[in-house]
Amino acid sequence: MRDFYDGITFRMNVVAKKASLGLQHGLKRYDVTPEQWSVLNVVNHRAPISQRHVAELVEKDAPTVNRIMDVLVRKNLIVKIVDEKDRRVTLLSLSMEGKQKVQMIRNVVEMTCVQFYKGIPDAELGVFFDILMRIENNLE
C-alpha cells in the first residue's frame, strides 16, 4: 500500500508542476505569472476588495500578495483606492488596462484548461474535484 500512496503523491506533484508550467507558458505573452493571474482573477470577480481578503482567497500570505500587488500596480493593471468608510483599508480594483488584459488572459486560461481536461467527462472531473477537496481538508 505504501508504494501505491507514494505513486499517487508523486503523480500529483508531477501533474501540478506540468499544469503550472502550461499555464505559465500561456500567460508569458501577457507578461503575467500564474501567481499574478490568481490575484487579477480574484480582483476581477470581487472588486473593490481589500488586500487582506485577496490574500485569503488566493491562499497566500500577506507579504507575498503585497509584492504581487506592487508589481500589478506598476504594470497599471490594478488601482488602489482608500476605503471611504475605513481609511486604514485600501481597496483594489482593476484599471481599464487591467480589465482588457484580464479578458484576453481569460481566453488563454480557458483554452489551456480545455487542453488539460481533454477527453475527461465533466462527471469524472466532478469526482476528481471532490477527491482533491477531501485530500486538501485532510491536510489542514
From TrEMBL:
Keywords: DNA-binding, Transcription, Transcription regulation. Residues 5-137 form the HTH marR-type domain. PROSITE patterns: HTH_MARR_2. Pfam families: MarR_2. This is HTH marR-type domain-containing protein. The keyword tRNA-binding does not apply. The keyword Transport does not apply.
